């Protein structure tokens, strides 16, 4: 796992099988983003069986099979879709191609697991909603900054336990390292990546909905800019937004591509959560100048001050819950409504954004 490059950040956790070998088989297609490795790790650790991999680029397939040699190389996506053993297809396509691939997968009778952001336009989202309704299949999205971060999962558990009362405000920080030279061309094409709020902003908005228990929110204000990359005019290297949820909880977040070279990891992702009886701060990937390890959670409430280091302690329950939801046709991992709402709001934030710097 590369700790310096968020594009190839692929967490590994405890093996917690919810199914036996061969009970839940999946295939992998579209290897355009390195998140597919983290998605695969999560599925395998929950007991899923990897059967196929396909990408038109043989070099990408070779690199993938170096990590997951059990995957057979499919000659086409159709070969995966026609396999009756395959229950789910995981994919990390170019962002503006993710929904069309998902629609194709679902029409073939398989559930779909996409990297975020799974949509770049409202038209894509509306079309996929129709396909979900028509087919009854599930369209999952890999919001890795919550689902694959033990500190964030633990913070959610503390909130559920009521240790800080009702959540009234969240402030989110999502800086990323740019690594401009290693990025593919599509990364700098706004039509393809969707804009910074649509892309990495999707992590932030999904967490806000989850931690505040909101099913909807309003975008009050958003802005984007390109401050330091004039050679890539379609890149947005900074974005922020302000939201208010149905229950009155508010959210301010900022995302950027300005992680300093001296930081030991790809981004100092943090979240500060204010409740009526306390506060939680999550330092996801590093505790700057103190510990290079991540998953630090700081809790303050009426009982005092506490620091939890939960790396290797919490695990990643989403993947097992997702598999069971696919088998049982339930919605325990997260609801389809929640997924679509998080994606809708990040698209709206992007559409409404004021351009503050070219």
Automatic annotation (TrEMBL):
**Residues annotated as domain GFO/IDH/MocA-like oxidoreductase:** 156-281
GO molecular function terms noted in the UniProt entry: nucleotide binding; oxidoreductase activity
Q: Does the keyword DNA-binding apply?
A: no
Which keywords does UniProt give here? Oxidoreductase
Please list which residues make up the signal peptide.
none
Domain of life, per UniProt, equals Bacteria
Keyword check for Disulfide bond? no
Cited InterPro entries: Gfo/Idh/MocA-like_OxRdtase_N, Gfo/Idh/MocA_oxidrdct_glycsds, GFO_IDH_MocA-like_dom, NAD(P)-bd_dom_sf
Q: Any idea where the Gfo/Idh/MocA-like oxidoreductase N-terminal domain is?
A: 47-143
Full protein name: Oxidoreductase
